[in-house]
């Protein structure tokens, strides 16, 4: 239902705990009709590892390396794999809308947002395709990964568009099953994954401008920053949930 | 006793199982990985179905238990399926002639 009026929240940086808490705040705001459906672009400051809801913290994250380098570690509400988000790294976005806006089936709902992304990437002369379940690829290489949750009659789909690929840094913070195959895994990521920088995109800002065109194409929208009430609600959620070991280390 | 196993579906998602078992029974199974399950809270239902069952359970029966647990909230498992999970668990915990040979 692209004819509905959307709210666009322009790129802003938060720490990892606030970013995951803000996803809840946006879900609540849309569920309670306090906000129109939301498209939010955001960054991570400081750098962060974000693991999927069902992942094992201990098995997926090198906690010691994260601690010593000041990298936040957080568990998100959605499934999928762990990612490292560098402070200067990928572009992240979330889409929060009533579930009637999206197909009921999981994969077609990813495809809907993927189409917006593909439209945006065309602005950068990048020809991308949806790769089920939840990826977007260019020439068979992953350029974007997505995840979703559905609650309170609302769907949240969020994801990352890669700017640059730095698997050496990624595997400093995400565990590899065996140190002996680390080099092989780094080489494999370089073969399978690609960022928009590879296509001559000079900055994240340039990437976000193209994404904005793709995500908001043919939509009526108003640009509206997060309100102080929303930021306060997110801070409360960080204190009560997302920064606590009971949440982060639950699996 | 405890065993851990990791499985990656071809072109799909990774699942890590942690299985606690005794001589005759499986005590509990913890399921982790980069799969999707909607709603996410259903993981408690799924793991709840994997408590205290015989090590000689069939794949079909174990799959039925998991499917019934997922039906509680009409949950959708994406990137892995209950047949694969049941097969992994049954293969790993199948009693041998002599459990002394059961070494992971």
UniProtKB/TrEMBL annotation, chain A:
Give TM regions. none
Q: Do the record's keywords include Ribosomal protein?
A: no
Domain (BPL/LPL catalytic): give its ranges. Answer: 33-223
Q: Which GO terms describe its molecular function?
A: ligase activity
Q: CDD domains under this entry?
A: LplA (cd16443)
What are the record keywords, sorted?
Answer: Ligase
Q: Which PANTHER family match?
A: OCTANOYL-[GCVH]:PROTEIN N-OCTANOYLTRANSFERASE, OCTANOYLTRANSFERASE LIPM-RELATED
| Protein name (Swiss-Prot/TrEMBL) | Lipoate--protein ligase family protein
Automatic annotation (TrEMBL), chain B:
Q: Which Gene3D superfamilies match?
A: CO dehydrogenase flavoprotein, C-terminal domain
Q: Name it.
A: Lipoate--protein ligase
Organism for this UniProt entry:
Candidatus Iainarchaeum sp
């Amino acid at each position: 239902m692209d004819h509905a009026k959307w709210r666009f929240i322009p790129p802003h940086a938060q720490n990892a705990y606030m970013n995951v808490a803000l996803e809840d705040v946006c879900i609540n705001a849309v569920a309670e009709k306090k906000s129109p459906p939301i498209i939010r672009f955001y960054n991570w400051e400081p750098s962060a590892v974000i693991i999927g809801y069902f992942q094992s913290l201990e098995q997926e994250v090198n906690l010691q390396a994260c601690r010593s380098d000041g990298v936040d570690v957080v568990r998100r509400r959605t499934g999928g794999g762990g990612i490292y988000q560098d402070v200067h790294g990928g572009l992240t976005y979330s889409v929060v809308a009533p579930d009637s806006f999206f197909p009921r089936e999981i994969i077609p709902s990813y495809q809907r947002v993927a189409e917006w992304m593909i439209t945006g990437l065309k602005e950068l002369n990048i020809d991308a395709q949806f790769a089920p379940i939840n990826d977007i690829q260019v020439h068979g290489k992953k350029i974007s990964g997505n995840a979703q949750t559905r609650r309170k009659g609302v769907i949240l789909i969020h994801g990352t568009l890669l700017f640059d690929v730095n698997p050496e840094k990624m595997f400093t913070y995400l565990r590899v099953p065996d140190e002996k195959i680390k080099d092989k895994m780094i080489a494999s990521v370089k073969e399978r994954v690609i960022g928009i920088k590879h296509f001559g995109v000079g900055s994240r800002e340039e990437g976000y401008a193209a994404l904005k065109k793709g995500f908001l194409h043919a939509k009526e929208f108003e640009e509206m920053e997060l309100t102080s009430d929303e930021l306060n609600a997110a801070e409360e959620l960080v204190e009560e949930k997302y920064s606590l070991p009971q949440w982060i280390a639950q699996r | 006793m405890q065993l851990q196993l990791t499985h990656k579906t071809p072109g799909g998602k990774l699942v890590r199982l942690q299985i606690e078992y005794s001589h005759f029974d499986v005590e509990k199974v913890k399921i982790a990985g980069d799969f999707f399950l909607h709603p996410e809270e259903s993981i408690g239902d799924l793991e709840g179905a994997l408590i205290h069952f015989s090590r000689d359970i069939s794949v079909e029966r174990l799959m039925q238990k998991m499917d019934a647990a997922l039906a509680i909230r009409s949950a959708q498992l994406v990137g892995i399926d209950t047949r694969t999970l049941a097969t992994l668990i049954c293969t790993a915990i199948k009693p041998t002639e002599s459990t002394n040979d059961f070494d992971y």
